[in-house]
Specification:
Strand content: 15-25%
Mean pLDDT: 88
Number of strands: 12
Order of helices and strands: EHEHEHEHEHEEEEHEHHEE
Number of helices: 8
CATH class of the largest domain: Alpha Beta
Distance between the termini: 37 Å
């Protein structure tokens, strides 16, 4: 997908930040849209249908965490890329961000070239809609449909956020094989995105809440496996 076809929504209550980030991303050819708070972002998401949202946390009217959760709940927007772009660097803020459904967490201040690099790394996750992966993984009680990007468990269709789906697909690609944390981070999050090991734990917990505890097993001190 070419840059000029990619829409990015910037959400921040600081005009200077919006202008600086907008300027640097527009130089790369992206279509840039802006919102000043979470509530405004929620409305613009529906009309713009962006591929990526850069979202501040501390904002008036509606903060970034709440906005992220509400965007994820919108039908058709479960897999839109969302990255928090915030000065909040505490571990608990990172965990809250990923728990709300974020794909990445970028801490301000960041040099423009580094930000552009992170944005490009995120956007590489977008798959060409015209290229289908003819792979449907079927196990006892659960089907992972990589063509239509959903999971079906006991006849019920479950739509997962992008990173949860990619994590589940990786584990299920080789049933009973133990994937260590390094392999999971590199395969699901990529070399260009720096995230901590707790990120995996948060996503595993959310997967278990949705598909049950029977499939994903923890191998203490090593990693995780999809058990059948």
């Amino acid at each position: 997908m070419k840059n000029e076809n990619i829409k990015i929504l910037l959400v921040d209550d600081e005009p200077d930040i919006l202008e600086i980030v907008s300027f640097n991303l527009q130089k790369e050819g992206f279509q840039i849209f802006k919102a000043n708070n979470g509530e405004e972002a929620l409305e613009k998401v529906k009309s713009i249908k962006p591929q990526l949202i850069l979202l501040d946390i501390m904002m008036p009217v509606m903060d970034g965490i709440e906005a992220c959760e509400k965007i994820r709940a919108l039908k058709g927007f479960e897999n839109v890329l969302i990255a928090f772009f915030t000065a909040r660097g505490e571990d608990y803020s990172h965990l809250a961000g990923f728990d709300a459904g974020a794909d990445d967490y970028i801490t301000k201040p960041v040099k423009p070239k580094v930000l552009v690099s992170k944005v490009n790394a995120l956007l590489r996750r977008i798959k060409n809609d015209n290229v289908e992966e003819d792979q449907i993984l079927t196990f006892d009680g659960i089907t992972i449909n990589k063509i239509e990007y959903f999971v079906e468990k006991d006849g019920e269709k479950i739509t997962l956020p992008r990173k949860e789906f990619e994590l589940l697909s990786l584990l299920a690609s080789l049933p009973n094989k133990v994937f260590n944390r390094d392999i999971i981070l590199k395969t699901v999050w990529g070399h260009d995105v720096v995230v901590g090991g707790r990120t995996i734990d948060v996503h595993i917990r959310k997967l278990r809440e949705k598909i049950g505890d029977d499939y994903i097993k923890t191998v203490k001190g090593v990693g995780y496996k999809f058990e059948v």
